Amino acid sequence: MPDAPYSQLPSVDRLLHDAAVAPLVSRYGARLTADAARALLAEARAHIAAHRALPVWANDWATALQRTLAERSASKLKPVFNLTGVVLHTNLGRAQLADDAIDAVARVMRSPVTLEYDLDEAQRGHRDDTVAELLRDITGAEACCVVNNNAAAVLLMFAALADGKEAIASRGELIEIGGAFRIPDVMRQAGCTLVEVGATNRTHLADYRNAITERTALLVKVHTSNYRIEGFTSSVSEAELAALGRETGVPVASDLGSGALIDMSAYGLPAETMQQRILADGVDLVSFSGDKLLGGPQAGIIVGRADAIARLQKHPLKRALRCDKITLAALEATLRLYSRSDQLPLLLPTLRYLTRPQPDIAQAVERLLPECRKAYGASFHIDSAPCLSQIGSGALPMNTVPSQALTFTARDGRGRTLEALAAHWHAQPKPILGRIADNRLWLDLRCLDDESELLAALRAARQGADVRCQKPEIR
Ligand SMILES: *Cc1c(COP(=O)(O)O)cnc(C)c1O
Description:
The protein is an alpha/beta fold.
């Protein structure tokens, strides 16, 4: 009876009217449930064709459907374990928000808020006033402008100050950040003409001075976030450029990328340029990201002189690039934490991860080691090894902080075995992301919040792997 297994397959219609499936229809809707049923039926037919028997899961269609629907409707934004060793990982959403920022976001999402409403005057207020005073206090700037991200901030500075005119920048600073963000291209988009001065490795103040004409509208300084020129080099400082700007009446703008609102060296970290220092040097406008070292939401923040900021605020692009109440609430709550600098590493996840001492991380590795060996020791050598975490996101890119990792080396010595393990971990409900280097899979525990959660995930993944090997038909 070769057709017998096929004849046991239910129809889509019968499945949809099954009492056990009714709750799924009401939760996921009839269309998605029917789609999932069709997919499962196709899978069952393929299984019968190959094995001449129904798959094991076909004895409980409702459960199989439930699993399929849950998988299909899971969010595309999956929380992951970031054990890559990159703290501010752009592809993983950069900074994790502080609890205060998360609470603030939830509050403003649930209610109308005074985003552009001045209660005292009963008139229209300005949304950037949400953070203006905080930014003034922290950086010493006269005014601020907040937009979608720092790329937008740079675009807006060029467009508002130099559209139809010339902007002078050093050849050593015409950087590409990634994702097609290149300073020359952004200037073209903003309608300004780039005047390149100096050489790749050396630019002098006279180079800027000699390039200034009546068409010059802006002197530009760009933080070379993600690369470094070493050897026979020289560049012009913000203070020198600002002095030239004052002397010639040309505004000076600095794209700082990340910057740091606090002295990172006070926390034992590599020093990063501080916004307040650049402003004190006399630069008119400084732009930076909200989700790099600042540790807040994605945003582009421009601080500086009130008259220059007013030109940005009046530009039509500002309306296109402005932030919503969610971003502004998160940014406000994050900036408020900066007044408690002694507790900042406790309150701000980015700083908490960056300042976590290596011995602390090494102890976490030691605690996990025995259980990991139990679960994975048959196929892998598992060790504790020192490594270097990266700060990431072009913030202090060349600077690393010493850390410690759990490392997995395949007993069969094959790179494919490591890749298969990494892929299997990626497929977990909460994916575990490490990195493969030197024939090992590294799990840098610097950014690990909950050891028992990771251990449970690693154990569950191990069991899943066993099940898959023995019974390939189990879904
Ligand atoms: C990161 C960076 C940018 C882009 O900032 P986003 O917030 O990612 O848009 C621009 N310029 C520099 C120098 C940077 O480091």
